[in-house]
Specification:
Number of helices: 10
CATH topology of the largest domain: Rossmann fold
CATH class of the largest domain: Alpha Beta
Structural class: alpha+beta
Number of domains: 3
Radius of gyration: 23 Å
Strand order of the largest sheet: 5-4-3-6-7-8-9-17-19-18
Shape: globular
Number of strands: 19
Bound molecules: S-adenosylmethionine
Helix content: 25-40%
Order of helices and strands: HHHEEHEHEHEEHEEEEEHEHEEEEHEEE
């Protein structure tokens, strides 16, 4: 007799309950009003037709729109990140919120948290995203969200001032509208790219500049419109190995780097180890290496297609020290059952010096900075002259702002 397996798909109600349990168990949801929002808002209504309930309620991104090159231009962000950002915004019933980058689902979560006495304005630059968001919000019962088509770089002054501005698109800068439209005591939550590394920052005004009280590694689709500021990509092996540069001061000889990759490689190990689950260590060491006053890039590889040639610590965001014709990147090799060991692998004429420097920097981070939990991140107006504090400081100059990453975060 033929056997058949009956697969029961979860109902949306069950799937929402499962998602809330997962986000709570993982620590992303701690506030009851945020749990209630995730338990209430029907995420599947905002997903493209044909998305299964399992996919719609997985703790993952749902792609909703792609550009002509196939790259994602809009998505429903991952629930863990939405929960993190909403909690970071410290919303109350009655709060006023501006969301930059729309889609509808996150705006509905926000509307649920701030309640009928609150205000949610959501701005997107893509008219199709705006139309889809309006339709889905109406269907889900959140027609009170105002969805505006425009460049989020300008915010939406007519709806302000806001208790929170939540930016859900990767930005390399903080345009003035976002801070100007904040109410006193308001919070700006934004994924800011600094030397290629994007961190979701919880920013509050203080003393004429913005100070980050929290920072979390994250990824978003890049900003379009006036704030468009793509990174430079240097293909080392076509698209299989790409060096990403996010600092106009860093110049490389692309042909020389490609030639270096054909030559011998040098690998060194550091004495520094980390548990693979120690996400904070990886986030901090990336920013520490990016903060050094020297040419810096990020290596991005297709692990399968570069196996045997390149084996970086992180396949998307691997810190890389550079000269014009050589490079060395961070590695991670298994040390024992539970720990992994940082190291460096280098190519090109300066491989010896670069790998040695990388090992010294990793060791210095372990000895002096690791316990400090990362840099102080502050955002100043462009052109601000900062007094020398004697501490290591990476300055990221952009059109509107100057971001400073200072190590250690407070003077010892
Ligand atoms: C990750 S999606 C937003 C996700 C959404 N908040 C959700 O519900 O999960 C990023 C959005 O930002 C939009 N975007 C890109 N540049 C923009 C800009 N300058 N102003 C407003 N929206 C922009 C894109 O069209 C895209 O829809």
């Amino acid at each position: 007799m033929p056997t058949s397996e009956v697969v029961h798909e979860l109902t949306p109600d069950d799937a929402r309950g499962r998602l809330v349990d997962l986000l709570t168990a993982r620590g992303w949801i701690t506030q009851p009003q945020v749990a209630a929002a995730f338990a209430t808002v029907p995420r599947h209504v905002f997903a493209p037709k044909g998305t299964s309930v399992d996919e719609a309620y997985a703790d993952d991104v749902v792609v909703t729109r792609r550009g002509p090159d196939g790259k994602t231009t809009s998505s429903i962000s991952a629930p863990w990140l939405q929960a993190y950002m909403i909690e970071a915004a410290r919303l109350q019933p009655g709060s006023r919120v501006l969301e930059v980058g729309s889609g509808g689902y996150n705006a509905a979560l926000l509307a649920q948290v701030v309640g009928p006495s609150g205000t949610v304005v959501s701005v997107d630059i893509d008219p199709q995203v705006v139309a889809n968001a309006r339709t889905a919000l109406e269907e889900a019962g959140y027609g009170r969200v105002l969805v505006v088509c425009g460049d989020g770089e300008d915010g939406y002054a007519a709806g302000g001032p806001y208790d929170a501005v939540i930016v859900t698109v990767e930005t390399s800068d903080i345009p003035p509208a976002w801070t100007q439209q904040l109410a006193p005591g308001g919070v700006l939550v934004a994924p800011l790219r600094m030397r290629g590394h994007t961190r979701c920052l919880t920013l509050q005004p203080g003393d004429g500049h913005l100070v980050a009280s929290a920072s979390l590694q994250c990824g978003f689709v890049p900003m379009q419109g006036h704030g468009r500021d793509p990174v430079r990509r240097v293909p080392l092996r076509g698209d299989d190995a790409v060096l990403v540069l996010d600092d106009s001061r860093t110049q490389v000889d692309a042909d020389a780097l490609r030639t270096a990759l054909d030559g011998p490689r040098l690998e060194l190990r550091s004495p520094v180890t980390a548990a693979i689950s120690d996400g904070e260590a990886f986030e901090a060491i990336h920013l520490w290496l990016a903060s050094q006053p020297r040419p810096y890039g990020i290596l991005k590889v297709d692990r399968e297609r570069t196996a045997g040639l390149l084996d970086p610590q992180d396949r998307f965001f691997c810190p890389t020290l550079l000269t014009s014709d050589s490079f060395a990147y961070l590695t991670l090799r298994q040390h024992d059952e539970t720990t992994w060991q940082f190291g460096a692998q280098g190519f090109g004429p300066a491989a010896g010096a670069l790998t040695g420097d990388l090992i010294d920097l990793v060791t210095a981070w372990d000895q002096h900075e690791r316990a400090g939990g990362g840099p102080q991140i502050s955002v100043y107006s462009a052109g601000t002259r900062l007094p020398d504090t004697g501490r290591l400081r990476l300055l990221v100059p952009r059109r509107h702002t100057l971001t400073a990453l200072t190590w250690p975060r407070s003077s010892r």
